[in-house]
Amino acid sequence: MSVLLNLESVSKRFGYRTILDNISFTLNAGEFVMLIGNNGAGKSTLLRIISSLMKPTNEKISFCETNQKEFLLEWLQIMGSITHENRLYGDLSSIDNLRLFGTLYGVEELKLKIDEILAKIDLTHVAQLPVRNFSSGMTKRLMIGRLMLCQPKILILDEPYTGLDQHSFRWFQQYLQEFHQRGGTVFMVTHQLELGLELATRVLVLHRQTIMHDISAAGLSMDQCSAWLEE
Question: Residue 145: which of 172, 167, 163, 165 has the closest Cα?
């Protein structure tokens, strides 16, 4: 497997408060990694660092075995993310948001693909409505639609199931499965352990600001994951 991302002794502090401490792991191409941990463990901070939305206190990160700064633009071009910030334009409609991102990423046959994606994420009926008027679930579906349109090679996902109804759970789960089967790489934070374990090949447990467990997901149960979180 080729190495996509390598973190070595990465930490993050805000003043005297340590958010992440001595984080080290490697993400290889084709892996589906689920990161779990209790609230306040530093999961979202770690994802923001991986997504280049936040700088660590000490920088020992390489992308595709290349210095982070030297490969940053290429990394952003192959990565798609869902974070707590939706990064959509509230005054624009679904169509206009997708058209903007599709143009930036050079998506071909853009109009046709936008129509197809709006149908898949069940937003065709509100395609002209400003996104600021969307519910949290509709906003999350549009964020997923943006991923589907831009077709990244790596997904960085922070609680992607939040706000989705049961029907949306299933088609999003199918999308993630197909993305991974096509060779895509996923790094996901979720409290939905059952859904995560359906797809994950590896599980990281973040506890007290550091990685406490790094284990294959094969044969791993929800009970074992829950037990780690209760330690």
Answer: 172
- Identify which of 206, 205, 202, 208 has the alpha carbon closest to the alpha carbon of residue 220: 202
Determine the pLDDT at residue 1.
Answer: 65
3-state secondary structure the chain: CCEEEEEEEEEEEECCEEEEEEEEEEEECCCEEEEECCCCCCHHHHHHHHCCCCCCCCCCEEECCEEHHHHHHHHHHHEEEECCCCCCCCCCEHHHHHHHHHHHCCCCCHHHHHHHHHHHCCCHHHCCCEHHHCCHHHHHHHHHHHHHHHCCCEEEEECCCCCCCHHHHHHHHHHHHHHHHCCCEEEEECCCHHHHHHHCCEEEEEECCEEEEEEECCCCCHHHHHHHHHC
Q: Which residues contact 114 (CB under 8 A, 6 or more apart)?
A: 95, 98, 99, 102, 149
Q: What is the mean pLDDT of each run of 10 residues along the chain (231 residues)?
A: 87 88 92 93 90 83 73 82 88 95 91 94 94 93 93 93 87 93 95 93 91 92 88 74
